[in-house]
User: Which sequence fits this backbone?
């Protein structure tokens, strides 16, 4: 019988475990927890010369400054808008793709399509934005097609107009991640009990009815848990592509909180403002996660923690 | 799952075989309803479109990279080069910064992946030992890091004061332990029967032996998964090179150099200017970037189809948290 009490023999045997746990914890304190001390900067008039310990405390002044900055309010709007749009379209496309792929009759074809669908996930945003630039350029495929079918008379300069930016970002996300995001739904679909489909068929269910009454309910827990994980990340989802695709002409709609932090913190050297913006983002993210978790619990769904 | 390569080779054969199978099935059932047939056709069209949209940009980049640079500026290159040349690749391979970038990228991918794998595996092993007195607190300590982090600026300042800026170490040391990867391995390790560990203990094996000789060999699939995740992340990351090693060109990476090429391309206002900038005759920034893009994606494209079953494992295990 095992007892919960710690005995000396156990402790001696566990020496090696304790050693590694301590080493990795020290590593974690330095690289994951020590930066949290830097949050103090947001409440200070931080000067690199005086450092964290001797800079003057200013309370919430930096936050007040932040929220009186029109451009900060704008980056909040941009981050939220792009986060929500991306989440909605990538979610929808991944589920749609997974269901349709599952309905494909040819096994070999299914395999090939799925393999191809992963490809963009493995490409960096640098490559993806480069590809987008080519496809959307004056001589690129999109303008060529639009001209060919007479939809436009002049090539559109997609990167010069604010109205195109959010759709481009959403499309890029769909292009890059649909196949990858579908993996988990496909795994969930495979684990649905086949007898449910047989039963549905006996009841006279057609293809649509089966999808609606067997497949979708079968992957609902997976959808819920992924939705939860992603809603918490809505504010985290905006940096690389916006940074790489944005330009002076569209900066009103392209800049996100992360870009704002980078701009103020690193380029302008105002660490306090940059940190305050970063804290705002973290706090909102945590609140979102807690709310989602609570909602899930209330509806009896699976939870994150 | 693991027949990717054969399905590539035998695609045509399989497709016709499947057609036959469908035909036979149809004969047996004597009817495919009209709605069903319509669905199949629509689904087929959707999948073909999906494949075209996914592959076209990549194939187009390949065509541009193999085409004469000045000629490419005229546009109209789709799937095949018009004026074939290796010149773009020669230019890329003769650029010192790209060679350095490639070398550093390979180094950080190999070293970073090894370090991350070893550390995450050890940590997962520790926290998945049922008797270990600190298993729970250590787990929690890392799970918290998934939700709370210091953010860009505090991290930047910390790395600066630790002397990690302008160094190679900044690529491989800071991200070594990741809670997500640890949880993936931990979930897998928990699925291994306790009896294996217990019988080894009776034979006098310590935890080091159990980890190295018993658990790790069984964890090969999940190790492969995590190695794949980390390696892809290392290969593709550029922001750390820009943020921490901007001044240290000896530590530049392939992706960062590619990014600089991208901005030089999008900043060029007219094709005349591009030709002026090119200097080397028929090579333009656009065509050089296309070649560099292909070189950068080639290793990944060659490897990922063979590792498919590993990412399925990783993603399903990653969904299980506590």
Assistant:
């Amino acid at each position: 019988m095992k007892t919960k009490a710690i005995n000396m023999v156990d402790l001696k045997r566990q020496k090696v475990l304790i050693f590694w746990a301590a080493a990795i914890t020290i590593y974690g304190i330095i690289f994951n927890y020590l930066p949290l001390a830097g949050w103090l900067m947001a409440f200070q008039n931080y000067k690199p010369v005086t450092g964290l310990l001797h800079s003057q405390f200013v309370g919430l002044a930096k936050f007040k400054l932040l929220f009186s900055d029109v451009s900060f309010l704008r980056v909040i709007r941009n981050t939220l808008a792009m986060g929500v749009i991306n989440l909605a379209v990538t979610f929808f496309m991944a589920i749609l793709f997974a269901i349709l792929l599952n309905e494909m009759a040819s096994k070999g074809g299914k395999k090939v399509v799925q393999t191809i669908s992963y490809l963009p996930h493995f490409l960096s945003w640098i490559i993806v934005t480069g590809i987008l630039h080519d496809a959307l350029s004056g001589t690129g495929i999109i303008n060529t097609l639009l001209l060919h079918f007479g939809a436009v008379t002049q090539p559109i300069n997609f990167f010069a107009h604010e109205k195109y930016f959010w759709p481009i970002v959403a499309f890029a996300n769909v292009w890059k991640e649909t196949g990858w995001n579908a993996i988990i739904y496909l795994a969930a679909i495979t684990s649905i009990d086949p007898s449910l489909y047989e039963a549905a068929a006996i009841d006279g269910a057609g293809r649509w009815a089966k999808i609606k009454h067997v497949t979708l309910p079968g992957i609902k827990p997976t959808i819920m848990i992924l939705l939860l994980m992603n809603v918490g990340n809505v504010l985290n989802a905006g940096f690389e592509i916006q940074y790489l695709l944005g330009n002076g002409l569209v900066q009103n709609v392209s800049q996100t909180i992360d870009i704002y932090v980078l701009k103020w913190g690193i380029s302008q050297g105002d660490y306090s403002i940059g940190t305050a913006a970063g804290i705002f983002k973290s706090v909102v993210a945590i609140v979102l996660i807690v709310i989602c978790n609570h909602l899930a619990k209330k509806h009896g769904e699976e939870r994150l923690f | 799952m693991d027949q990717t390569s054969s399905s590539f080779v035998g695609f045509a054969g399989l497709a016709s075989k499947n057609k036959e199978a469908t035909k036979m099935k149809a004969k047996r059932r004597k009817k495919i309803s009209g709605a069903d047939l319509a669905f199949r056709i629509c689904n087929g069209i959707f999948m073909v479109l999906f494949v075209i949209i996914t592959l076209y940009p990549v194939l187009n980049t390949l065509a541009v990279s193999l085409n004469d640079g000045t000629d490419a500026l005229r546009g109209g290159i789709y799937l095949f080069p018009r004026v074939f040349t290796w010149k773009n690749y020669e230019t890329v391979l003769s650029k010192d910064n790209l060679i350095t970038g490639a070398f550093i990228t390979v180094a950080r991918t190999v070293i970073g992946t090894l370090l991350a794998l070893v550390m995450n595996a050890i940590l997962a092993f520790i926290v998945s030992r049922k008797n270990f007195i600190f298993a729970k607190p250590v787990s929690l300590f890392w799970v918290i890091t998934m939700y709370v982090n210091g953010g860009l600026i505090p991290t930047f300042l910390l790395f600066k004061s630790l002397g990690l800026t302008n160094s190679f170490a900044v690529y491989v040391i800071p991200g070594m332990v990741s809670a997500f990867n640890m949880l993936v391995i931990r979930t897998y390790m928990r699925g291994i029967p306790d009896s294996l560990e217990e019988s080894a203990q009776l034979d006098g094996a310590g935890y080091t032996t159990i980890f190295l000789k018993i658990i790790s060999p069984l964890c090969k699939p999940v190790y492969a998964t995590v190695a794949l995740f980390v390696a892809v992340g290392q290969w593709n990351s550029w922001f750390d090179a820009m943020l921490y090693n901007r001044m240290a060109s000896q530590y530049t990476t392939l992706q960062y150099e590619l990014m600089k090429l991208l901005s030089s391309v999008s900043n060029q206002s007219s094709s005349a200017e591009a030709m002026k900038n090119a200097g080397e005759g028929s090579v333009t920034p656009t065509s050089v970037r296309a070649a560099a893009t292909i070189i950068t994606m080639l290793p990944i494209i060659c490897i990922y189809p063979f590792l498919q079953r590993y990412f399925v494992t990783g993603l399903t295990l990653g969904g299980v948290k506590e």
Observations:
- Chain A touches chain B through 96 residues (CB under 8 Å).
